[in-house]
Design goal:
The protein is α/β, with parallel strands linked by helices. 37% of the residues lie in helices and 22% in strands. The protein has two domains: 8-259, Aldolase class I (TIM Barrel); 316-384, Orthogonal Bundle (Arc Repressor Mutant, subunit A).
Protein backbone atom coordinates (compact mmCIF):
# COMPACT_ATOMS: atom_id res chain seq x y z
CA UNK A 1 0.00 0.00 0.00
CA UNK A 2 1.20 3.54 -0.65
CA UNK A 3 1.06 6.33 1.89
CA UNK A 4 -0.91 9.39 0.79
CA UNK A 5 0.14 12.72 2.30
CA UNK A 6 -2.76 13.96 4.51
CA UNK A 7 -3.84 17.56 5.23
CA UNK A 8 -1.23 19.76 6.92
CA UNK A 9 -1.68 21.99 9.98
CA UNK A 10 0.63 24.26 11.98
CA UNK A 11 0.91 24.19 15.76
CA UNK A 12 2.59 27.13 17.51
CA UNK A 13 3.52 26.80 21.18
CA UNK A 14 3.58 29.87 23.43
CA UNK A 15 5.14 28.59 26.67
CA UNK A 16 4.39 31.29 29.25
CA UNK A 17 1.42 31.66 31.57
CA UNK A 18 0.72 33.94 34.52
CA UNK A 19 0.75 31.05 36.99
CA UNK A 20 1.13 27.29 36.64
CA UNK A 21 -2.11 25.48 37.54
CA UNK A 22 -1.71 22.49 39.90
CA UNK A 23 -3.34 20.03 37.45
CA UNK A 24 -1.41 21.16 34.36
CA UNK A 25 1.19 18.89 32.76
CA UNK A 26 1.64 21.01 29.62
CA UNK A 27 4.94 22.68 28.81
CA UNK A 28 4.01 25.96 30.48
CA UNK A 29 6.12 28.29 32.62
CA UNK A 30 4.75 30.83 35.09
CA UNK A 31 5.84 34.44 34.80
CA UNK A 32 8.82 35.49 36.91
CA UNK A 33 9.99 38.96 37.94
CA UNK A 34 11.10 39.98 34.45
CA UNK A 35 8.66 39.83 31.52
CA UNK A 36 9.42 37.16 28.90
CA UNK A 37 11.12 38.22 25.65
CA UNK A 38 7.88 38.13 23.68
CA UNK A 39 9.12 39.93 20.54
CA UNK A 40 12.35 37.92 20.45
CA UNK A 41 10.33 34.71 20.72
CA UNK A 42 8.40 35.63 17.56
CA UNK A 43 11.69 35.92 15.67
CA UNK A 44 12.75 32.49 16.94
CA UNK A 45 9.44 30.94 15.90
CA UNK A 46 9.94 32.14 12.34
CA UNK A 47 13.55 30.89 12.33
CA UNK A 48 12.28 27.54 13.61
CA UNK A 49 9.73 27.41 10.80
CA UNK A 50 12.37 28.25 8.20
CA UNK A 51 14.60 25.44 9.47
CA UNK A 52 11.76 22.90 9.50
CA UNK A 53 10.80 23.82 5.94
CA UNK A 54 14.38 23.23 4.84
CA UNK A 55 14.66 19.96 6.79
CA UNK A 56 11.39 18.42 5.59
CA UNK A 57 11.79 19.69 2.03
CA UNK A 58 9.73 17.82 -0.54
CA UNK A 59 7.71 16.03 2.15
CA UNK A 60 5.77 19.29 2.56
CA UNK A 61 5.28 19.32 -1.23
CA UNK A 62 3.52 22.68 -1.33
CA UNK A 63 0.61 21.40 0.76
CA UNK A 64 -1.58 24.26 1.99
CA UNK A 65 -2.05 24.79 5.71
CA UNK A 66 -5.64 23.94 6.70
CA UNK A 67 -5.41 25.18 10.30
CA UNK A 68 -3.15 27.06 12.71
CA UNK A 69 -3.37 26.63 16.47
CA UNK A 70 -1.71 28.83 19.10
CA UNK A 71 -1.43 26.71 22.25
CA UNK A 72 0.36 27.09 25.53
CA UNK A 73 0.90 28.32 28.09
CA UNK A 74 -1.31 31.33 27.50
CA UNK A 75 -0.95 32.67 23.96
CA UNK A 76 -3.11 35.70 24.81
CA UNK A 77 -0.15 37.05 26.82
CA UNK A 78 1.22 38.00 23.39
CA UNK A 79 -0.13 41.34 22.12
CA UNK A 80 -2.18 41.33 18.90
CA UNK A 81 0.60 43.18 17.05
CA UNK A 82 3.03 40.32 17.78
CA UNK A 83 0.49 37.69 16.69
CA UNK A 84 -0.06 39.71 13.49
CA UNK A 85 3.69 39.84 12.82
CA UNK A 86 3.98 36.10 13.27
CA UNK A 87 1.00 35.30 11.05
CA UNK A 88 2.33 37.62 8.37
CA UNK A 89 5.60 35.73 8.51
CA UNK A 90 3.79 32.39 8.24
CA UNK A 91 1.90 33.59 5.16
CA UNK A 92 5.19 34.56 3.53
CA UNK A 93 6.57 31.07 4.08
CA UNK A 94 3.62 28.73 3.65
CA UNK A 95 0.53 28.44 1.47
CA UNK A 96 -2.66 28.84 3.52
CA UNK A 97 -6.11 27.66 2.50
CA UNK A 98 -8.56 30.48 1.87
CA UNK A 99 -10.71 29.26 4.77
CA UNK A 100 -7.79 28.42 7.08
CA UNK A 101 -8.90 28.09 10.72
CA UNK A 102 -6.68 30.10 13.11
CA UNK A 103 -7.27 29.39 16.80
CA UNK A 104 -5.77 31.24 19.75
CA UNK A 105 -6.08 29.88 23.28
CA UNK A 106 -6.87 32.54 25.83
CA UNK A 107 -7.20 32.72 29.60
CA UNK A 108 -10.03 34.99 30.80
CA UNK A 109 -7.68 36.30 33.47
CA UNK A 110 -5.21 37.70 30.93
CA UNK A 111 -7.64 39.55 28.69
CA UNK A 112 -7.51 43.32 28.42
CA UNK A 113 -10.56 45.18 27.16
CA UNK A 114 -10.34 45.96 23.46
CA UNK A 115 -7.72 43.34 22.53
CA UNK A 116 -10.05 40.92 20.79
CA UNK A 117 -10.61 43.18 17.81
CA UNK A 118 -6.81 43.31 17.44
CA UNK A 119 -6.55 39.51 17.30
CA UNK A 120 -9.37 39.41 14.77
CA UNK A 121 -7.60 41.98 12.59
CA UNK A 122 -4.39 39.92 12.88
CA UNK A 123 -6.11 36.92 11.31
CA UNK A 124 -7.19 34.91 14.36
CA UNK A 125 -10.70 33.73 13.52
CA UNK A 126 -11.33 31.31 16.40
CA UNK A 127 -10.83 31.72 20.16
CA UNK A 128 -10.59 29.00 22.78
CA UNK A 129 -11.27 30.11 26.35
CA UNK A 130 -9.85 28.07 29.24
CA UNK A 131 -12.89 28.51 31.50
CA UNK A 132 -12.80 25.10 33.29
CA UNK A 133 -15.67 26.01 35.66
CA UNK A 134 -18.18 28.74 36.47
CA UNK A 135 -17.98 28.01 40.19
CA UNK A 136 -15.63 30.41 41.99
CA UNK A 137 -14.81 27.84 44.68
CA UNK A 138 -13.83 25.28 42.06
CA UNK A 139 -11.79 27.86 40.13
CA UNK A 140 -9.87 28.64 43.31
CA UNK A 141 -9.20 24.94 43.95
CA UNK A 142 -7.94 24.61 40.37
CA UNK A 143 -5.56 27.54 40.80
CA UNK A 144 -7.24 29.59 38.08
CA UNK A 145 -6.61 33.35 38.04
CA UNK A 146 -10.09 34.37 36.89
CA UNK A 147 -13.56 34.37 38.45
CA UNK A 148 -16.76 33.08 36.89
CA UNK A 149 -18.01 36.61 36.22
CA UNK A 150 -14.69 37.55 34.58
CA UNK A 151 -14.97 34.50 32.33
CA UNK A 152 -18.47 35.45 31.22
CA UNK A 153 -17.41 39.05 30.64
CA UNK A 154 -14.40 37.96 28.55
CA UNK A 155 -16.51 35.75 26.28
CA UNK A 156 -19.10 38.49 25.79
CA UNK A 157 -16.33 40.98 25.03
CA UNK A 158 -14.99 38.66 22.32
CA UNK A 159 -18.46 38.30 20.85
CA UNK A 160 -18.88 42.08 20.85
CA UNK A 161 -15.58 42.35 18.96
CA UNK A 162 -16.99 40.15 16.19
CA UNK A 163 -16.05 36.59 17.17
CA UNK A 164 -18.65 33.96 16.34
CA UNK A 165 -16.36 30.91 16.43
CA UNK A 166 -15.58 30.44 20.13
CA UNK A 167 -14.73 27.32 22.14
CA UNK A 168 -15.14 27.01 25.89
CA UNK A 169 -13.04 24.47 27.82
CA UNK A 170 -14.90 22.91 30.76
CA UNK A 171 -13.77 20.28 33.24
CA UNK A 172 -15.90 17.94 35.34
CA UNK A 173 -15.19 15.61 38.28
CA UNK A 174 -13.50 18.53 40.02
CA UNK A 175 -12.44 18.50 43.70
CA UNK A 176 -15.59 17.93 45.78
CA UNK A 177 -17.82 18.67 42.78
CA UNK A 178 -21.40 17.46 42.90
CA UNK A 179 -23.52 16.06 40.09
CA UNK A 180 -25.60 19.25 40.17
CA UNK A 181 -22.48 21.41 40.09
CA UNK A 182 -21.21 19.74 36.92
CA UNK A 183 -24.55 20.31 35.20
CA UNK A 184 -24.67 23.92 36.35
CA UNK A 185 -21.29 24.56 34.70
CA UNK A 186 -22.72 23.26 31.42
CA UNK A 187 -25.83 25.46 31.79
CA UNK A 188 -23.75 28.59 32.26
CA UNK A 189 -21.60 27.68 29.28
CA UNK A 190 -24.70 27.15 27.12
CA UNK A 191 -26.05 30.55 28.15
CA UNK A 192 -23.06 32.14 26.38
CA UNK A 193 -23.97 30.34 23.11
CA UNK A 194 -20.44 29.30 22.07
CA UNK A 195 -19.87 27.49 18.79
CA UNK A 196 -17.95 24.67 20.49
CA UNK A 197 -17.53 23.17 23.96
CA UNK A 198 -14.66 20.93 25.07
CA UNK A 199 -15.83 18.98 28.12
CA UNK A 200 -13.32 16.68 29.76
CA UNK A 201 -12.65 14.97 33.06
CA UNK A 202 -10.00 16.28 35.45
CA UNK A 203 -7.29 13.66 35.72
CA UNK A 204 -4.22 13.54 37.96
CA UNK A 205 -1.22 13.70 35.64
CA UNK A 206 2.32 12.71 36.73
CA UNK A 207 4.70 15.48 37.77
CA UNK A 208 1.94 17.93 38.70
CA UNK A 209 1.14 19.49 42.06
CA UNK A 210 -2.17 17.59 42.17
CA UNK A 211 -0.38 14.28 41.59
CA UNK A 212 1.92 15.01 44.52
CA UNK A 213 -0.95 16.10 46.79
CA UNK A 214 -4.19 14.68 45.33
CA UNK A 215 -7.35 16.65 46.09
CA UNK A 216 -10.61 14.86 46.97
CA UNK A 217 -12.14 13.88 43.61
CA UNK A 218 -15.41 12.10 42.75
CA UNK A 219 -15.01 8.36 42.22
CA UNK A 220 -15.10 6.85 38.73
CA UNK A 221 -18.77 5.85 38.80
CA UNK A 222 -19.88 9.28 40.00
CA UNK A 223 -17.68 10.94 37.36
CA UNK A 224 -19.24 8.73 34.68
CA UNK A 225 -22.74 9.73 35.78
CA UNK A 226 -21.68 13.39 35.49
CA UNK A 227 -20.36 12.80 32.00
CA UNK A 228 -23.53 11.04 30.80
CA UNK A 229 -25.82 13.74 32.21
CA UNK A 230 -23.73 16.54 30.69
CA UNK A 231 -23.62 14.75 27.33
CA UNK A 232 -27.40 14.53 27.32
CA UNK A 233 -27.81 18.21 28.21
CA UNK A 234 -25.39 19.29 25.48
CA UNK A 235 -27.19 17.12 22.94
CA UNK A 236 -30.56 18.62 23.90
CA UNK A 237 -29.05 22.08 23.34
CA UNK A 238 -27.98 21.13 19.80
CA UNK A 239 -24.29 20.40 20.42
CA UNK A 240 -23.27 17.24 18.60
CA UNK A 241 -20.59 15.10 20.21
CA UNK A 242 -18.06 14.25 17.51
CA UNK A 243 -15.10 13.25 19.70
CA UNK A 244 -14.79 11.86 23.24
CA UNK A 245 -14.56 15.35 24.78
CA UNK A 246 -15.68 17.67 21.93
CA UNK A 247 -19.15 19.06 21.20
CA UNK A 248 -20.02 21.46 18.40
CA UNK A 249 -22.91 23.40 16.98
CA UNK A 250 -23.73 22.54 13.36
CA UNK A 251 -20.79 23.32 11.07
CA UNK A 252 -18.49 24.31 13.94
CA UNK A 253 -16.27 21.27 14.46
CA UNK A 254 -12.64 22.16 15.09
CA UNK A 255 -10.64 21.68 11.89
CA UNK A 256 -7.31 21.59 13.71
CA UNK A 257 -8.24 18.89 16.20
CA UNK A 258 -10.04 16.87 13.53
CA UNK A 259 -6.79 16.79 11.59
CA UNK A 260 -5.01 15.37 14.65
CA UNK A 261 -7.67 12.72 15.20
CA UNK A 262 -7.70 11.69 11.55
CA UNK A 263 -3.92 11.17 11.71
CA UNK A 264 -3.18 14.26 9.66
CA UNK A 265 0.18 16.04 9.50
CA UNK A 266 1.30 19.11 11.41
CA UNK A 267 4.39 21.23 11.74
CA UNK A 268 5.18 22.15 15.35
CA UNK A 269 7.17 25.27 16.19
CA UNK A 270 7.99 26.71 19.59
CA UNK A 271 9.40 25.40 22.86
CA UNK A 272 8.28 21.80 23.35
CA UNK A 273 6.10 21.77 20.21
CA UNK A 274 5.52 18.43 18.50
CA UNK A 275 5.11 17.78 14.78
CA UNK A 276 4.29 14.85 12.48
CA UNK A 277 5.14 14.79 8.78
CA UNK A 278 4.34 12.06 6.24
CA UNK A 279 6.58 11.63 3.20
CA UNK A 280 4.64 10.00 0.37
CA UNK A 281 7.86 9.46 -1.63
CA UNK A 282 9.68 7.46 1.05
CA UNK A 283 6.54 6.08 2.72
CA UNK A 284 7.89 7.22 6.10
CA UNK A 285 6.27 9.16 8.92
CA UNK A 286 8.51 11.36 11.05
CA UNK A 287 7.81 12.80 14.47
CA UNK A 288 9.83 15.77 15.66
CA UNK A 289 9.66 17.70 18.91
CA UNK A 290 11.44 20.84 20.03
CA UNK A 291 13.49 21.40 23.15
CA UNK A 292 11.13 22.14 26.02
CA UNK A 293 12.55 24.95 28.12
CA UNK A 294 12.06 28.43 26.64
CA UNK A 295 15.58 29.50 27.61
CA UNK A 296 17.16 26.56 25.78
CA UNK A 297 14.86 27.05 22.80
CA UNK A 298 15.74 30.72 22.53
CA UNK A 299 19.43 29.89 22.90
CA UNK A 300 19.25 27.59 19.86
CA UNK A 301 18.38 30.56 17.61
CA UNK A 302 16.69 28.37 15.05
CA UNK A 303 19.65 25.98 14.86
CA UNK A 304 19.84 22.23 15.32
CA UNK A 305 19.80 22.55 19.12
CA UNK A 306 16.15 23.62 18.90
CA UNK A 307 15.26 19.98 18.20
CA UNK A 308 14.57 17.89 21.28
CA UNK A 309 14.03 14.69 19.31
CA UNK A 310 13.36 13.39 15.82
CA UNK A 311 12.49 9.87 14.77
CA UNK A 312 10.82 7.84 12.04
CA UNK A 313 7.82 5.90 13.32
CA UNK A 314 8.46 2.17 12.88
CA UNK A 315 5.71 0.34 10.91
CA UNK A 316 4.77 -1.95 13.85
CA UNK A 317 3.98 1.16 15.92
CA UNK A 318 1.69 2.77 13.34
CA UNK A 319 -1.52 0.82 14.10
CA UNK A 320 -1.40 1.95 17.73
CA UNK A 321 -0.54 5.55 16.81
CA UNK A 322 -3.34 5.66 14.26
CA UNK A 323 -5.97 4.17 16.59
CA UNK A 324 -4.89 6.39 19.47
CA UNK A 325 -6.31 9.26 17.45
CA UNK A 326 -8.96 7.87 15.11
CA UNK A 327 -10.95 5.92 17.68
CA UNK A 328 -11.63 9.09 19.66
CA UNK A 329 -14.02 10.16 16.90
CA UNK A 330 -17.61 9.22 17.74
CA UNK A 331 -18.48 8.50 14.08
CA UNK A 332 -15.18 6.74 13.52
CA UNK A 333 -13.25 6.83 10.24
CA UNK A 334 -13.54 4.95 6.92
CA UNK A 335 -11.58 1.68 6.87
CA UNK A 336 -9.61 2.91 3.85
CA UNK A 337 -8.16 5.83 5.78
CA UNK A 338 -5.87 3.50 7.73
CA UNK A 339 -3.95 2.39 4.66
CA UNK A 340 -3.86 5.88 3.12
CA UNK A 341 -2.50 7.48 6.31
CA UNK A 342 -0.04 4.72 7.32
CA UNK A 343 0.88 2.97 4.06
CA UNK A 344 0.13 -0.39 5.72
CA UNK A 345 -2.12 -3.18 4.45
CA UNK A 346 -5.55 -3.55 6.15
CA UNK A 347 -4.57 -7.12 7.05
CA UNK A 348 -2.23 -5.59 9.66
CA UNK A 349 -5.28 -4.89 11.82
CA UNK A 350 -7.14 -8.16 11.34
CA UNK A 351 -6.34 -9.90 14.62
CA UNK A 352 -6.70 -6.82 16.84
CA UNK A 353 -9.97 -5.82 15.17
CA UNK A 354 -11.42 -9.29 15.69
CA UNK A 355 -10.57 -9.16 19.39
CA UNK A 356 -12.01 -5.66 19.85
CA UNK A 357 -15.25 -6.63 18.09
CA UNK A 358 -15.57 -9.82 20.14
CA UNK A 359 -15.32 -7.74 23.33
CA UNK A 360 -17.99 -5.34 22.14
CA UNK A 361 -15.61 -2.39 21.80
CA UNK A 362 -15.96 -1.82 18.05
CA UNK A 363 -18.89 -2.11 15.68
CA UNK A 364 -18.65 -4.98 13.20
CA UNK A 365 -18.71 -2.83 10.08
CA UNK A 366 -17.12 -3.31 6.68
CA UNK A 367 -17.17 0.45 6.07
CA UNK A 368 -15.96 2.22 9.22
CA UNK A 369 -13.71 1.81 12.24
CA UNK A 370 -15.98 3.00 15.05
CA UNK A 371 -16.14 2.45 18.79
CA UNK A 372 -19.34 1.32 20.49
CA UNK A 373 -20.57 3.19 23.61
CA UNK A 374 -18.77 0.51 25.65
CA UNK A 375 -15.61 1.09 23.65
CA UNK A 376 -15.83 4.84 24.23
CA UNK A 377 -16.02 4.28 27.97
CA UNK A 378 -12.99 1.96 27.97
CA UNK A 379 -11.10 3.68 25.17
CA UNK A 380 -7.66 3.22 26.74
CA UNK A 381 -8.17 -0.56 26.74
CA UNK A 382 -9.40 -0.49 23.14
CA UNK A 383 -6.39 1.46 21.92
CA UNK A 384 -3.95 -0.69 23.93
CA UNK A 385 -5.12 -3.76 22.00
CA UNK A 386 -3.37 -2.30 18.93
CA UNK A 387 0.04 -2.05 20.59
CA UNK A 388 2.77 -3.97 18.75
Amino acid sequence: MSLIAPPLSLYIHMPWCVKKCPYCDFNSHGLRHEPPPYADYIDHLLADLDADRADFGSALNGRPIVSIFFGGGTPSLFAPALIARLLDGVRERLSLKDDVEVTLETNPGTVEHGRFDGYLAAGVNRLSFGIQSFDDDKLSRLGRIHSASEAEAAVKSAQDAGYANINLDLMYALPQQTFEGALQDVERALALEPAHISHYQLTLEPNTAFAANPPPLPDDDYAWSMQEACEQRLACAGYGQYEISAYAAAGRRCTHNLNYWRFGDYLGIGAGAHGKISDSETGQIRRRWKTRHPRAYLGARGGADRIGGDNTVAPPELPFEYMLNALRLIDGVPHGDFSERTGLSPTTLRAALATAMRRGWLYDSSERLQTTPLGQRFLNDVVASFLP
